[in-house]
Amino acid sequence: MTSPTPGSAGSRTVLITGGAGGIGQGIARAFAAAGDRVILADRDAAAVAAAAEALGAEPLALDITDAASAAEALHGLAERGGVDALVNNAGILSVHGTVTELEPDAYRSILEVNVIGTFNMLQAFARHRIVAGGGGAVVNISSIGGRQPTPGMGAYESSKAAVDSVTRWAAIELAAHGIRVNAVAPGPVLTPMLEMGMPEGSPAREAWSSRIPLGDLAQVSDIAPAVVFLASGSAGHITGVSLAVDGGQLLT
């Protein structure tokens, strides 16, 4: 049993969480260019509606931390033709703090979205695909921070290490159903918001760039093709991997 592959327009339905953000929109554009029907999900109903309208996608207001809502969303989509691929892009980097200073509740807030939310969506999608007869693909958005720590960012980075672990866990258990589960692990990505805070030539931008052998932070357009590839039939014999897209930062 193999995962659905991109083909003519409307050949697949792809659900992308965190769809109102810069990376989510970039991934959506790449899938749409491959001829896929795209559904953008986000907790911010107004923002995701605007993003979906601009991209010609379908909006879905959804809080991924609510397991019942995730299950209900997939059930509703199943009644409208189902979902072939899930991109677990939603995540937050909301707090910073050292291991001796970070408040447990602040840490918990990141885990709730980045780990539990990812799990909720993956579980709901897997159940949906099994009922549908199997097949399908999941791509989780992780981070190289899960493998290369940065002081003060341990809460976020350990949540992404957990995403990598969940990816492997799901991949080994869902393989029997023909469901592939992989991850893309970017380094820092120049979303519009990040670029405003770290414009080219700024000390902060130079500090990050100096850690990257290829010389600069990733563009959103560097991340999206890797996601589309791992969700496609071209990656039909790949499951359980976390693909670094980091300009070589893990080499340093």
From TrEMBL:
Q: Which domain of life is it from?
A: Bacteria
Known EC number(s)? 1.1.1.47
Q: Which CDD domains match?
A: SDR_c
Question: What residues form the membrane-spanning segments?
Answer: none
Coiled coil ranges: none
Keyword NAD tagged: yes
Annotated keywords: NAD, Oxidoreductase
Q: SUPFAM superfamilies attached here?
A: NAD(P)-binding Rossmann-fold domains
Q: What name has this protein been given in UniProt? A: Glucose 1-dehydrogenase
Taxonomic lineage: Bacteria, Bacillati, Actinomycetota, Actinomycetes, Micrococcales
